[in-house]
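User: These chains co-purify. Model them together.
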Amino acid sequence: MNYHFRQALLAMRGNVTATLATLMTMTLTLLMLGFVLLLTLNVNRTLAQLESQVEVAAFLRPDAQDAALLAQVQALPQVTEAKLVTSEQVLTEMTQDSPYTRDAAALVGNPFPDTLRLRVARVQDSRTVAAAVSALPGVEDVEYGAGYVDPTVRTLTAVRGAGYALVGLLLLGTLFNILNAVRVAMYARRDEISVMRLLGATRGFIRMPHVIEGLLVGLLAAGLALALLVPSYLGLARRVQQLAPVFPVVQDAGTLVPLLGGVALLGVLIGLLGSLFATRRYLLELE
Amino acid sequence: MIDFKNVSLEYPVTRTLALDDVSLQIGKGEFVYLVGHSGAGKSSFMSLVLKRALPSRGEVRVAGEPLARYRGRRTALLRRRMGTVFQDNLLLSHLNAFDNVAFTLRVTGVPQREWAPRVTTALRTVGLEHKKYALPLQLSQGEQQRVAIARAIVGDPPLLLADEPTGNLDPDNSREVLKVLQNVNLRGTTVVVATHARDLVETFRHRTLTLRKGKLVRDDPYGGYAL
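Assistant: Joint model of the two components:
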């Protein structure tokens, strides 16, 4: 194993440009992947918080059958909670926020209708539930925060999708870089490999230094990516919490460690798989 | 040891017929010359035995086993039973004579404690024990070829294939290399030497197979170069 390890280091030293290019691309890819995963994690948590806060409000006509409507909306599968708030209760709530509301109501009458307040399981379901409820007889109007829920969900989903697409492309680029680096390294050792084959070396023996090379590059890239990602993320998370405490930024080790460990493991796996594939192909071409 | 039955080899890209319906047998412990002009098929014969090429027709057997059955790891194990020496000695320039010879033992997984006695014996057999720390560039062409022979025999293979081993050597060094190959043969190793060095074949007489345009045209058990 010492021999293979030494040969791997020699191959990396003799092929510095390709090794550095691979290392940089892989580090960048893992960095991007880590960033996208952390973003997704936080987006999911923010969405969960939104979900717990988003309310669909159905304003009823004066002649509406309140109890029957309540039973109907409670039967909708997306609705987790539904309650009827009478116009008097709404006026009381509004008066708590704006004390002059009751004075105005004394002059023109209570302007607030009876209201059904619903909570949905997922924020994406708000629109569906709103549409279903607005079609019910006796419902005058429905509000579900369309102004911010829809664009927020759309933007966050788009950002997440674009991030994954970018990471996919970078992963592909990294893989090609590794294939190229290992190929160049094997070409540089072609005389030695040719002698090895004549002397009866197995494929595994010939491939081992280059597999170790891929593994080492993967490990180094994973280490570098984590060294850059962890302090940057924690710094950013602290800053976001200070400036906008409304965002539930993920900072607990129990969630972050497995995620970042997965990123590192992926780096090592890409290095390993890339070099295994490249060495196999090179030797098959020689046969 | 080597058995060719109606073997033909055609290179697919150039459509060159390198060997044409060759049948021959080389027994265990023999010393055999393979002679012929350039392009006669000598190197193609070696390539087939080493399984670097596959016959287009016919069957090649080594030690009783058809080579077609050897695949992957088995090909590597087969090559461990054959020492090879080429015109270009293929020594690794960054390793000294000792390490070049030990390279065979390294790649075949021989424990390191066995290397020193076995490499020393192999270098002694080729008369270069005193130059074990010399790099290839510090050795003459003849000495380099003898190191290559030491590397080929250090694993004690039952078969030694030498393709133009004296091609780059002057007459004195050529004779020296031939003597070494004969000594190896005397230890019981089957030796096949592909050469077009008429004087050597005439001087050190052994069974001689003559190839012409891919065909085996003569099999002379008492030797002699007749083209």
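The helical segments of chain B are 42-49, 73-79, 97-107, 115-125, 141-153, 171-186, 198-203.
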